[in-house]
Amino acid sequence: MKVLVPVKRVIDANIKVRVKSDQSGVELNNVKMAMNPFCEIAVEQAIRLKESGSVDEIIVVTVGAAQSQETLRTALAMGADRAILIETEETPEPLSVAKSLKAVVDREGPGLVILGKQAIDGDNNQTGQMLAALLGWSIGTFISDLVVEESIVKVTREVDGGLEKLELLPPAVVTVDLRLNEPRYASLPNIMKAKKKPLDTLSPSDLDVDVTPRTEVVSVVEPPAREAGVRVGSAEELVEKLKNEAKVI
Amino acid sequence: MSILVIGEHDNDELKPSTLNTVTAAQELGDEIDLLIAGADCSAAAEHAARVTGVKRVLKVDDPSLADSLAENLSPLIAKLAGEYTHVLVPASTYGKNIMPRAAALIDVQQISDISGIESEDTFVRPIYAGNAMATVRSKDAIKMISVRTTAFESATEEGEATIEEITGAQESGLSKFAGEELTRSERPELTTADIIISGGRGMQSGDNFEMLERIADRLNAAVGASRAAVDAGYVPNDYQVGQTGKVVAPNLYIAVGISGAIQHLAGMKDSKVIVAINKDEEAPIFQVADYGWVVDLFEAIPQLEAALGEGG
Ligand SMILES: Cc1cc2nc3c(=O)[nH]c(=O)nc-3n(C[C@H](O)[C@H](O)[C@H](O)COP(=O)(O)OP(=O)(O)OC[C@H]3O[C@@H](n4cnc5c(N)ncnc54)[C@H](O)[C@@H]3O)c2cc1C
Ligand SMILES: Nc1ncnc2c1ncn2[C@@H]1O[C@H](COP(=O)(O)O)[C@@H](O)[C@H]1O
User: What is the mean pLDDT of residues B214-238?
Assistant: First the structure.
């Protein structure tokens, strides 16, 4: 079975983002970029499935600017087999990404697509669900456990009330949560090897996909800042302040 | 404006998240229908009919909807959406699971997790873990929206909507519910609690969370946690507050042994009053705390318990 893993290049999770003064977005120039942490977990899971013998080939794919190649190379160095870049000027919206991914699925015929549950730039949490809709496939979102068998995919989902288990009919789409696994680092020899692994570049028009945006960003601004308050030195002082000053207890 | 709110419920009870979502809907207009799609869900539908501002409850009672499986629920929402200008759902794991699937089925780009409404087509939403606020305008004919519940008040329950039974659900046969492990607690729910006390890696063990639970019981508070505490297995996953956990905004949030990483702040910095208890005076949590106490938590928490006791 082939597995497809869509990955996204985002600002590194440890970097504090800065809003541009013209309110057009956040500063991306000279900012450290990395693979979206949830996508790393998705790649890791695909590699584990390959190591356990239930997957033969891992294809990673990204929709984005030419620099997203770096992210694909990282995934190849971790252990993916080949990569596809669908090159676009700007980062497209989840619906356009889902349409592009559907076109890749139609070409490649994977039995499973593993995505992150959320990209930490837009925090949309949509793409996997949309892809499953367009394909008419089963979906397991926010999963913390995955078992792939011949004719069934078993998932455990992290939901607001606790955990939920589902059985999915393959082919399936799953989106992964943080506790599914601990992603590996790419070793230096594997980083070298990854440079020789195949990476194809396509355009949305090669795939007959319309990526015209449906939303317009009017402005991006800083959130209202919270002021640091006062220090307290004892439990009595804290309780007194919460009662009489803040009046919250 | 005609608005459909997708009600989150467990067939018996309407979840509080629905009440906040109805308030968001009221900012858009007053033609509000509330969908209760479930199995044996009369109790939830009757509850829904009492929500102030709702004109009509649409009840779809079908065995295929018992477990809110996206493959069965989303096509129903997609089918109904054609009658409305806006479809709103709480941005809970329930809403996040079903809404994008419904949106894609009708070729609409969903607007996720809105915290403000500027006009009928323009919405404010946090991006980058709340480190930036984006105002976005949707050009789609139908707006498919998930709502950040902490950003909108709860609707009251003084209404008298009519309940209309409709059909249209279909079993997809694509997936099957196979069990759940829900965290049972006598304490208030995290997302609706007035007071929350959360523990982080500094708690060192699950057993030590009992110290926080004792304070929670005294204050009628919910207990939350950082991701580090959940990952370490101290508490279950549904305790996690943050960018990728729950978003909360109680009157009082007490962070104990939590450093204040941006991903944690994303889930709690809209709390009215924040207290930080941490032994590292440089911890970023102090930058957002109204009251900071630099102290070893193992000293502080028993003292806090005692001080609360004295005051009654
Ligand atoms: C993609 C992504 C998503 C994430 N999502 C979330 C999320 O939703 N929620 C979340 O919380 N995190 C999230 N994180 C993780 C986040 O970056 C931090 O790693 C995490 O919040 C740290 O948890 P912590 O503050 O408990 O632990 P630490 O950062 O280790 O801090 C522990 C604190 O406890 C203090 N301490 C230790 N011992 C004591 C003592 N005896 N007395 C007093 N103080 C003490 C220390 O001084 C320190 O400040 C995410 C990370 C990524 C990459
Ligand atoms: N531009 C993209 N290219 C490839 N995959 C993407 C892209 N955007 C999002 N994804 C996938 O969808 C997941 C969820 O993203 P989102 O819906 O944007 O929060 C990510 O973790 C990726 O797996």
Answer: 97
Q: How far is B155 from chain A (nearest CA, A)?
A: 21
Residue among A160, A165, A178 minimizing CB distance to B179: A165
Angstrom distance (rounded) from CA A145 to CA A103: 28
Beta bridge partners of A83: A60, A199
Owner of token pair 């601990």: A182
Report the SS3 class of residue A200: strand
Which ligand is the nearest neighbour of the Cα of B202? 1
Instruction: Provide the ipTM.
Output: 0.97
pLDDT value at residue A89: 87
pLDDT bin (cut points 50, 70, 90) of residue B27 is: very high
DSSP code at position B212: H
Q: What are the backbone dihedrals phi and psi of residue B33, each rounded to the nearest 5 degrees, phi first?
A: -105, 145
Task: Say if CB A175 and CB A142 are below 8 A apart.
Answer: yes
Q: Are A174 and A163 in contact (CB under 8 A)?
A: no
- How far is the C-alpha of A38 from the C-alpha of A49, rounded, in Å? 17
Instruction: Compute, in angstroms, the gap from residue B227 CA to the centroid of ligand 1.
Output: 6
pLDDT score, position B311: 46
pLDDT digits over B247-270, tens only? 999 999 999 999 999 999 999 999
Distance of alpha carbon A130 from alpha carbon A107, whole angstroms: 18
Q: Stretch A183-205: mean pLDDT, rounded? A: 96
Rama region for B207: left / alpha / beta (φ>0; ψ in -120 to 50; rest): alpha
**Percent share of chain B, pLDDT over 70:** 99
Q: Are B258 and B202 in contact (CB under 8 A)?
A: yes
Residues B89 and B7: their CA atoms lie apart, in Å, by 7
3-class state of residue B134 by DSSP: strand
Query: In whole angstroms, what is the distance from residue A157 CA to residue A129 CA?
Result: 14
Ligand nearest to the backbone CA of A38: 2
Q: Do B304 and A177 touch (CB under 8 A)?
A: no
Tell me which amino acid residue B155 is: A
